[in-house]
Amino acid sequence: MANKEHISALVDGEIQDSALLEQLGNDRELSDTFGRYHFYGDALRNELPHHLQLDLSERVAAALADEPAIIAAPAPSAPRVEKAGVVRPLFGRVAPMLRHLGQFAVAASVSAAVIVGVQQYSQNDLQSPVLNTVPLSGGAAPVSLNYQFESPGRSNEQTLLEQQRRIQELLVDHELQQRLHQN
């Protein structure tokens, strides 16, 4: 039986074992491990696709199918009648409240993580123009009507239009900076 070290060595190209490749073709678990190791290698080499398709619906559906069905809720137990002068321990009264608070804390933590994740994900796609302080032309360059471009084949009119466009970009950036620093 192949272990994970052999699979890792196969993925890294350190060994070439036809028997191991045959086992990978026959065993679903080994095949999944082989695929995960290739995925890890791609991630380490920064060769992952730009948008990953992570479809968890099959796993969720399988987990729901394995979940036992609740036929009927259990009957509530009869309330305990305490004798006069008998004090229940504090833990017996606090435990149910702590359990509910714990469930609420877990739900709040998951909700906060989802919100932060969605904000971070959407922030990469849609940057707010107010907070976008990177120059639109891709880099800083001198802005002057006396500045001459070194590109042959450009007419003076094209050069003047390019300079006016860059000046306009700087004015827009200046306005955005003013809005940003007013708050």
From TrEMBL:
It comes from Oceanisphaera psychrotolerans. Residues 127-180 form the Anti sigma-E protein RseA C-terminal domain. This is Anti-sigma-E factor RseA. Keywords: Cell inner membrane, Cell membrane, Membrane, Transmembrane, Transmembrane helix. It is found in: Cell inner membrane; Cell membrane. It holds the Pfam family RseA_C. One of its GO terms (cellular component) is plasma membrane. Residues 1-75 form the Anti sigma-E protein RseA N-terminal domain. InterPro entries: Anti-sigma-E_RseA-like (IPR052383), Anti-sigma_E_RseA_C (IPR005573), Anti-sigma_E_RseA_N (IPR005572), Anti-sigma_E_RseA_N_sf (IPR036147), RseA (IPR026279). SUPFAM superfamilies: N-terminal, cytoplasmic domain of anti-sigmaE factor RseA.
